[in-house]
Write a structure and sequence with these properties.
Length: 253
C-alpha cells in the first residue's frame, strides 16, 4: 500500500510539472492580456498600481516554467535536494499568488472610484481628432462597449467639444453599427447607443481583474497538490528502505 502511494505521488508530481509548463504560458498570456486591455482604458484611471497584480502574474508565469523544469528533473532523478528546492519554490509561488488574490480584490474595489474620478476629465479633453490620445480612448471605448457619454448620450451637451462644435451632435463613435448614414445628431437619438460608458468601463475593468484573481486561485490550488506530493516523496525517500526509483540509477542523489 505504501509503495503504491509513493508511486502514485511521483506519477502525479511528474504530471503536475507538465501542467506547470502549460500554466506558465497561460499566466503570461493573462498578464499580457491585462496589460493590453488596460492600455486601452488607461485614461480612465490614474492609479498605476492597479497593474501590480498583472505584473506579479507574469513574473509567476515565468517562474512556473523554471519550476516545471526543476520539478521534472528532480522527480525523475529523485534528488532529495532537487525535490526540497522544488517544494520551497512552490511554497514561495503559492504565497505570491495569495498576495495577487488579495491585491486583486483591493484594486478591483478601487476601480469604480478611479473611473468616477477620471472619466469626466477625459470627456472634457475630447477634441475629436485621431492624434489626441483622450479622443482616441473615448472613441475606442464607445465603439467597443456600445455606449455613449458618461451616463447617456445627453452628457455630451456639457463637454467643451460639443459647445465649441455647435452642431448639436455627438461623436460618430456613438452611432449604432446597424444604422446607416448616422452623423451623431441629437435630433435622431434612436440612432445612438443609449447606455452610458462609465458603468460599462467599470464592469470591464472589474472583469479583467477577476481573470487575474481566478487564475491565481486556480494555479495556487494546483501548487498545493504539487507541494503535498513532493513532501510525500521526500518523507518516504528518507524513511522507507523499500523505496524504488522511477528511473534506475547506480547511485542516489
Amino acid at each position: 500500500m505504501g509503495q503504491c502511494g509513493i508511486t502514485s505521488s511521483k506519477t502525479v508530481l511528474v504530471f503536475l510539472n507538465l501542467i506547470f509548463w502549460a500554466a506558465a504560458g497561460i499566466l503570461c498570456y493573462i498578464g499580457a492580456y491585462v496589460f493590453i486591455t488596460y492600455d486601452d482604458y488607461d485614461h480612465f484611471f490614474e492609479d498605476v498600481y492597479t497593474l501590480i497584480p498583472a505584473i506579479i502574474i507574469i513574473a509567476v508565469g515565468t517562474l512556473l516554467f523554471i519550476i516545471g523544469l526543476i520539478g521534472c528533473c528532480a522527480t525523475i532523478r529523485e534528488s532529495s535536494c532537487g525535490l526540497a528546492t522544488f517544494a520551497a519554490i512552490l511554497l514561495l509561488v503559492f504565497v505570491t499568488e495569495c498576495v495577487v488574490v488579495v491585491l486583486g480584490y483591493i484594486y478591483r474595489a478601487k476601480v469604480e472610484d478611479e473611473v468616477n474620478h477620471s472619466i469626466q476629465k477625459v470627456y472634457n479633453e475630447y477634441n475629436g481628432t485621431n492624434t489626441d490620445a483622450p479622443s482616441r480612448a473615448i472613441d475606442y471605448v464607445q465603439k467597443q462597449l456600445h455606449c455613449c457619454g458618461i451616463h447617456n448620450y445627453s452628457d455630451w451637451r456639457n463637454t467643451r467639444w460639443f459647445k465649441e462644435s455647435k452642431n448639436n451632435s455627438v461623436p460618430v463613435s456613438c452611432c449604432q453599427p446597424n444604422i446607416s448614414n448616422c452623423t451623431g445628431t441629437l435630433t435622431r437619438p434612436a440612432d445612438l447607443y443609449q447606455e452610458g460608458c462609465e458603468a460599462l468601463v467599470v464592469k470591464k475593468l472589474k472583469e479583467i481583474m477577476m481573470y487575474v484573481i481566478w487564475a491565481a486561485l486556480t494555479f495556487a490550488s494546483i501548487q498545493m497538490l504539487g507541494m503535498l506530493c513532493a513532501c510525500i516523496v521526500l518523507c518516504r525517500r528518507s524513511h522507507d528502505p523499500a523505496y524504488e526509483l522511477l528511473v534506475t540509477t547506480n547511485s542516489y542523489a
